[in-house]
Amino acid sequence: MPRVTAALAALCLVAPLLAPLLALPAGAQERWATPDYRVFGRPATDRDAAAIDAVLESFGQAWAAENAEGVAALHADDVEWTNAYARIIRSSDALEMFLRDRLFPAFDASTSSGEAAALTPVSLRFVGADAAVYHGVADSDRGPARDGGAGRRRVHFHFVLERQGDDWRIAHTAIFDARR
Length: 180
Prior knowledge:
Elements: H1 2-23, E1 38-40, H2 46-64, H3 68-73, E2 75-82, E3 88-90, H4 92-103, H5 109-118, E4 120-127, E5 131-144, E6 152-164, E7 167-177
Parallel strand pairs: 1-4, 2-7
Antiparallel strand pairs: 2-3, 4-5, 5-6, 6-7
């Protein structure tokens, strides 16, 4: 028992000295510059590239307008959509309901339009003839940034797009950011 008491006493003496260090942002938390846009691989056809670009542009327009039906229509019927709070929504109908009833009403409309305007493409990766992965980033006002000096949250949008017949749809979405 004396060893435990001595260890606790030492911890009590050292903890106040180390506590300020825990409040400092870690090097891994510093915000890095967004890299230049890059395309990996090649689309099967020029039509596929144009169709994917159209889906991404339509997403930005629908998101900016807080058009839940329009956003959901760009997704596959069986989409799996994960937001920054790790909420997993399955189906375009459930996604439309979530956006319409919960996400969009919770923030001023300028938040969504600001995100859409700030959405910067990071990469587009073609995977075979029927899939592509898009990564975009935007600074957002949907809550505080993890690193206190940045002000706005840096939000990453990842879309897995798949060919569905003659169309392309977003089949999987993962949205993440760094915050407390």
